[in-house]
Specification:
Layout (H helix, E strand, L loop, with lengths): L6 H19 L8 H10 L4 H7 L5 H11 L8 H8 L10 H11 L2 H4 L2 H8 L10 H7 L13 H7 L2 E8 L3 E6 L2 E4 L2 E4 L3 E6 L15 E5 L2 E5 L2 H18 L3
Antiparallel strand pairs: 1-2, 1-6, 2-5, 3-4, 6-7
Helix pairs in contact: 1-2, 1-5, 4-5, 4-6, 9-11
């Protein structure tokens, strides 16, 4: 642990690195820092330079700031804040409708980025218990708001959301997991029947985690991010389904 950083900030930064690395490597979000982020993730360390790297993520930072401010937490990289955004926890419930609305206008500038009818549809979901979870943004803001402002497809939404899976087999660089894919069922988003799926967990013989068979893991853009507790799996399922239901709301 870096002694210069408070424990909650250190844990929050290292957690955030695990989920931010792969979209950065793919050049979807943040600056060109994927090599640095990878090494931070492998070493499980953090310092002020990592904070600066993560602040370059144009969509991530406004969400973390929103959750932190709404819960009177000074540091947007506090572990509880970071976990709330990527996986989900009770801090999401502390964000008021008024603050969420302001977040879309001032934090993400979506009123200028989206077509008027799309923006009105988005803010119309706020009174129906919309929460600032990563999956809500993926499923309900159809325009990707990172470095590539293009429209989401089913495949990119499935890759961009934080998925979970049970490890069935551990290979040299890949994991085989049992996980439910995002599907279209009767013109509505849903999670399909669990299938076997290959997930990368090592580059250059280095990884963020050392999973075992029967562990539950999270993955983002095909990269294994973390080993999840049962409570984290439960929260991720809960908030992902809630975001899907809101996406299906006309």
């Amino acid at each position: 642990m870096n002694p210069q950083l408070p424990n909650n900030q250190f844990k929050g930064l290292t957690l955030c690195t695990r989920y931010a690395f792969m979209p950065n490597k793919l050049q979807y979000c943040g600056g060109d820092k994927n090599k640095e982020l990878f090494e931070y993730g492998v070493r499980n360390t953090a310092d002020p330079f990592l904070t600066d790297f993560l602040k370059e993520f144009q969509t991530l930072m406004p969400y973390l700031q929103l959750i932190a401010e709404s819960n009177k937490i000074k540091d947007p990289f506090d572990y509880r804040v970071v976990e709330a955004y990527w996986l989900g926890n009770e801090l999401l419930e502390g964000v008021t409708m008024k603050k969420f609305y302001s977040h879309f206008i001032d934090g993400l500038n979506l009123k200028k980025k989206l077509k008027p009818k799309d923006f009105e549809k988005l803010i119309g979901k706020i009174p129906h218990n919309a929460l600032p979870h990563h999956s809500f943004h993926v499923f309900n803001v159809w325009l990707r708001t990172g470095n590539l402002p293009i429209i989401h497809t089913l495949a990119t939404m499935d890759n961009c959301r934080i998925s979970w899976g049970k490890v069935l087999d551990v290979d040299k660089n890949d994991l085989e997991v049992l996980s439910s894919p995002l599907i279209i069922n009767g013109n509505k988003l849903a999670l399909g029947k669990a299938i076997r799926k290959k997930i990368i967990y090592k580059f250059y013989n280095k990884s963020f985690i050392e999973p075992k068979v029967n562990d539950w893991i999270s993955f983002h853009w095909g990269w294994a991010c973390d080993i999840l507790s049962s409570a984290q799996v439960k929260n991720l399922i809960k908030y992902t389904w809630q975001s899907i239901e809101l996406a299906n709301r006309q």
